[in-house]
Amino acid sequence: MDKRIIFAVAGSGKTTQVVNSLDLRRRFLIVTYTDNNLLILRRKIMERFGFFPSSIILYSYFTFLHAFCYKPFLLMQMQTKGINYEMPPERTRWLGSATDAFYIDSHRRLYHNRIAKLLDAKGVMSDLFQRLEKYVDVICVDEVQDIGGHDFELLMAICRCNVELMLVGDFYQHTFDTSRDGPTNRTLHDDYAKYKKRFEKAGLEVDTTSLAKSHRCSEAVCSFIRENLGIEIYSQSTKSADVIFLERQEDADRIHACGKTVKLFYQEHRKYNCYSENWGNSKGIDHYQDVCVVLNGTAYKAFKTGVLKTVNPQTRNKLYVACSRAHGNLYLLSDQMFKKFKSG
Predict the structure, then answer these.
(1) Hey, which residues does 141 pair with through a beta bridge?
(2) Got the DSSP string for 86-125?
(3) Does residue 1 surpass a pLDDT of 80?
(4) Would the pLDDT of 28 be above 80?
């Protein structure tokens, strides 16, 4: 039975790989994390078939976890009322995982980061496996790099199911976690080699070559990412584009006013009154042509001193996401040059 994980680079066609694997003979369950990717998958599936097939189930991760995994087995017993996406109070960690208060807040909402652990604690994993095997032939998980905490343990358990499995992700686009809870898989994304080993031990074939080149980014952008962020990405594209660092205020003013060039900020993009998004939130977006990445103080200093590779992994990964949105030119500048446009 085919069980594999495909490690990809930005713009290599991860979502297209998932959609192209679909057919109308088998029953597919597709799970993804970000809302951007959910919408893109839905659109591409409809473009592929001309309609959305009833044999394909498309879920965001927490909808899958709550609606498919939790509700059929535990809702009546636990009598809960939705999900609490805030982190549980620290005191709940000392209650012990055998108590309901470890999983449920005072409004009877489930703590999002402990639902996967609850399934195991209540002994419903074998029932969940049977449910998956009854209704699904193939499970596809996109953006797998963002599954963390107890959710990663659930994913490893699902790998044992008697269904085909295709996981797709980019280790270096890990910018968010589905959940965190104390020490559980806290160091999961610290080492790429060890991360791959986790999937090998779960019985998956590890594919690092099928999606190894970017169709989106030019070689100039890929070269910038390799040299400055230490991430191995190469281009499949022959398009011509440049990476340009802007240092004159008049150039910054022109880029800020340009309605065709998106400005990507580390955070608080709405305060700059322009066509914009935040670095991490741009993940999954594929329609930008020229991109301007606005470097915050830490990233700007590291760039100017040639040590961007050493910034904390979350900052590096978000910057990688931002830079790799570019189909065309990539512009970079300091956020100080946009300071006069910032409100609040």
Answers:
(1) 31, 167
(2) SPPPGGGGGS-TTSGGGTB-TTSPEEGGGHHHHHHHTT-H
(3) no
(4) yes
Amino acid at 240: S
Q: Where are the alpha helices (DSSP H) in 8-96?
A: 14-20, 35-49, 61-63, 71-78
Residues 6+ apart with CB under 8 A from 301: none
Give the mean model confidence (pLDDT) for residues 90-102: 91
Torsion of CA 310, 314, 317, 322, to 10 degrees: -110
CA angle 97, 103, 104 (to 5 degrees): 145
- pTM of this prediction? 0.91
Are the beta carbons of 186 and 156 closer than 8 angstroms?
A: no
CB-CB contact of 33 with 61 (8 Å) = yes
Give the C-alpha separation, 104 to 65, whole Å. Answer: 15
* Two structure tokens written together for 336: 């100080």
How many beta carbons lie within 10 A of that of residue 135, not counting itself? Answer: 12
Residue 150 CA to residue 156 CA, distance in Å, equals 10
Distance CA 145, CA 148 (A): 8
Structure tokens at 245: 């660092």
- What is the amino acid identity at position 234? Y
Residue 238: left if φ>0, alpha if ψ -120 to 50, beta else—which one? alpha
Place of tokens 């893109």: 40
Structure tokens at 303: 């760039």
Q: Output the six-digit token pair for 301.
A: 């200093």
Q: Which of 224, 195, 213 is nearest to 322 (CA)?
A: 224
Model confidence pLDDT, tens digit, residues 55-78: 999 999 999 999 999 999 999 999
Q: What is the mean pLDDT of residues 141-153?
A: 96
Q: How far is CA 96 from the centre of its chain?
A: 30
Residue 116 Cα to chain centre, angstroms? 18
Helices 313-323, 297-304: crossing angle, 10 deg rounding: 80
